[in-house]
Design brief:
Layout: H1 2-29, E1 36-38, H2 41-46, E2 59-62, E3 68-71, E4 78-81, E5 92-94, E6 135-137, E7 143-146, E8 149-157, E9 177-185, E10 189-192, E11 199-201, E12 210-214
Antiparallel strand pairs: 1-3, 2-3, 4-12, 5-12, 6-11, 7-10, 8-9
């Protein structure tokens, strides 16, 4: 009777442990392990696993052999960070040109348009290309000049003799003819348009955040 009692206790404990492991394995199998990072044996010893995360804030998976792997961002991913530069998470670095990062300080990111399959009508831009300018100059050095003149001619009947007038018939029928020419010339008008080489801002309203890159 005593041995039967012990056997039943062992059986219950074994059954509970088996059910627990079965449920854990079933849960793990449902997780799609994308972009896994395999840990070395030395790293495994340092991991302090909980039910779903580690001290590195990554989900840890375990296979039937006890090998650990995590689901995280692949190396090279760039995110926007709204916190302080001094509080960038471990494994990430500010995109300032150091640690293999592109220098994105004071720059915006433009989508790549590779030469292998470019978008029609848009300039080809390869990965890690840079360009543009913060300011732009407009220059204009043209002048406008104009001179106008006019000419008027005509005939008038006049009873008077005068310079450049034909002698009349002596009658009083007022049919004497006076011919003359008048020319009117006005002063030339010159207009000059002057431009400047002052630099003007072309930046729209903005909000600054920090670009950070996954480096491990």
């Amino acid at each position: 009777m005593k041995y039967l009692h012990i056997f039943l206790i062992v059986l219950v404990v074994f059954t509970i442990e088996y059910i627990r492991k079965y449920m854990e394995r079933k849960t793990i199998n449902k997780i799609e392990t994308i972009n896994k990072e395999n840990y070395s044996n030395e790293t495994k010893k340092k991991l302090k696993a909980t039910e779903s995360t580690t001290e590195y804030n990554k989900m840890v998976l375990s296979n039937s052999n006890g090998d650990l792997s995590s689901i995280g961002c692949p190396k090279g991913v760039i995110w926007l960070w709204s916190g302080s530069i001094d509080t960038i998470p471990d494994g990430w670095a500010l995109c300032n040109g150091d640690n293999g990062t592109p220098d994105l300080r004071g720059r915006f990111v433009l989508g790549v348009n590779p030469n292998t399959k470019p978008v029609p009508g848009l300039s080809v831009r390869e990965v890690n290309a840079k360009g543009g300018s913060e300011t732009h100059n407009h220059k204009y050095f043209d002048t406008v000049w104009s001179e106008n003149s006019g000419f008027k001619s005509g005939e008038i009947n006049s009873p008077f003799d005068g310079t450049d007038a034909r002698i009349g018939s002596g009658d009083t029928d007022y049919d004497n003819t006076f011919r003359g020419n008048w020319r009117y010339t006005g002063p030339g008008l010159e207009q000059e348009l002057k431009g400047t080489d002052d630099q003007g801002k072309i930046m729209p309203p903005y909000w600054t955040l920090a670009y950070i890159m996954k480096i491990v």
